[in-house]
Amino acid sequence: MGIINLRGGDKGMNESLTNRQIAFIIFGIVVGYGTLGLPKDITENAGTGAWFTLLISVVITMIFTYIITYLSYVHENKTIYEYSNILVGKFITFIFMIIYIIYFFVLFTMVTRISSEAIRLMVLIKTPVWALNLIFFLVVYYAVIKKLSVIGRVCEIYGLIIIIAALTIHGAVFTQGKLINLKPFFVAGHMGAYVKATLVTLVPFLGIEILVIIPFDNNKNNKKIFKYTIAMIGLIGFCYILNVESCISVMGVDGIVHYEDALFATIRRIDIKSLEFLERIDGIFLTIWIMCIICTITLGAYGSIFMINKLYNKIHFNILAFIVILSSFIVSQIPKTADEVGKILDYVGYLGLITAGVIPLILLIITKVKKYDKKI
């Protein structure tokens, strides 16, 4: 069956990227559907101190981003499949790969489904969810077969557009909000609640584990790669804080907790007549948000297909991509309601803590014990 082969299948699978492309790939997979419900989820748990909870989550995410970046940097031109085989052997590596495959597969499948549900409810009420799913999957298949270098360039272009648009939109939202809704900024007595709420805010930062499938070429990816990846997490955290604070400023804590799609609900409430091109800001937001979703599900799909290709390398990548995406389309139709999809994504979040935290930490410890990092 060709289950374990250190050559890892397609030679073209191990594609190196520039530091900037790697950073934008992180942005592409992390920033997605979760931005809609983030204001509600975090405000329910941290109130107006949401910004502080997010700050804690940013620091934690930076630490694990550094760990994963470090592993790829030390094990030059290798992905997790290759360096895990060296560090823990074939059997444990196989288990790790299965965990990553399940995680990436369920992630991109359910994000596609719930995003389609959201689009149907927001603008295409009479369109069947399966039809929206199909459109997403066709786009994803086309992107995935172009391989990682093309996906990296797309994420770079989309990422720049999304960041500029996000700063503009949230800045516009702030002009319609009230400072009083953001107070009190911090309550020392609520420190326990702020820390506890990080369990909710860590999930929207999941996706950093995509780094495990990107081989680092130290001629391209010198030590500056650490600055790029850490800085991108900082930028994502800043965008998340803007997202939450702008929503609270308009709707207040008591109002925001009633909306699952709090961000879109907030944007629909405001009307900036003085800026004609922003008069229908919800349309601009929806376009940008769909770009985020395309990046997220494309990278999730590529992650699962990449891992499967490493284990079963006799199947051509494009054929494997078709099989995986067709399977994903079928699985995406199984949940009957959006609530069921949401529950599945909650479990995926817990699995993400293993793929982004536990497994990289284990491999880091073994790398240190076996002194594979002496070259740094």
Put simply, the count of helices is 14
- Give me the Rg, rounded: 21 Å
> Mind describing the biggest β-sheet?
none
Q: How many domain units?
A: 1
Task: Let me know the number of strands.
Answer: 0
CATH architecture tag: Up-down Bundle
Structural class: mainly alpha
Intertermini distance: 38 Å
Strand-residue proportion:
under 5%
The residue fraction in helices comes out at: over 70%
**Briefly, what CATH class?**
Mainly Alpha
Low-pLDDT parts are 1-12
CATH superfamily: Amino acid/polyamine transporter I
Using the alpha-carbon principal axes, give the shape: globular
**CATH topology annotation:** Amino acid/polyamine transporter I
Order of helices and strands: HHHHHHHHHHHHHH
Mean pLDDT: 83
Protein architecture, described:
With 376 residues, this protein is mostly helical. The chain has a single domain (19-369), classed as Amino acid/polyamine transporter I (Up-down Bundle), CATH 1.20.1740.10. The chain is built from 14 helices and no strands. The chain has helices at residues 19-30, 34-46, 50-74, 80-88, 90-122, 129-144, 147-175, 191-196, 198-201, 224-256, 262-269, 281-311, 317-332, 338-369. The longest helix has 33 residues, at 90-122. The radius of gyration is 21 Å and the shape is globular.
